[in-house]
TrEMBL record:
It holds the Pfam family V-set. This is Ig-like domain-containing protein. Residues 130-150 are annotated as: Disordered. It comes from the Eukaryota. It comes from Marmota monax (Woodchuck). The lineage of its organism: Eukaryota, Metazoa, Chordata, Craniata, Vertebrata. PANTHER family: SIALIC ACID-BINDING IG-LIKE LECTIN 15. One of its GO terms (biological process) is regulation of bone resorption.
Amino acid sequence: MQVPSEVSAVAGDAAVLPCTFTHPHRHYDGPLTAIWRAGEPYAGPQVFRCAAARGSELCQTALSLHGRFRLLGNPRHNDLSLRVERLALADDGRYFCRIEFSGDVHDRYESRHGVWLRVSVRLRRARRCDRDATRPVPAHPPQGLSKLSG
């Protein structure tokens, strides 16, 4: 499994988690399942899962956490790249891709180190203050104004 060590993105935007793989079954056209996990490999919670039937190019989505995860790659072409929409700071963490072959071949491959998704906050530039707002306030009120008693 080939994944980058890190992908950086900004909260509210989308990110792509690349994942490609090789396997010894060159012309495999049997059933397969693509899975993405969060937190830890092998046992972390699944955030995305899709399955392709024998001979099908279409990987039918079975799980997409909050509807924000979408497979960009094609498992039949050794690509499990995943798009994550509407990123939140809570999405920051490590993600692991996995492919499972079933039918005649029972092989499973999963990234051990995963890809770290780093989600940051976009800082907005402060507005320029109005000149009048920065004028010093007089210590004594102008003549004709009385002090408020309180």
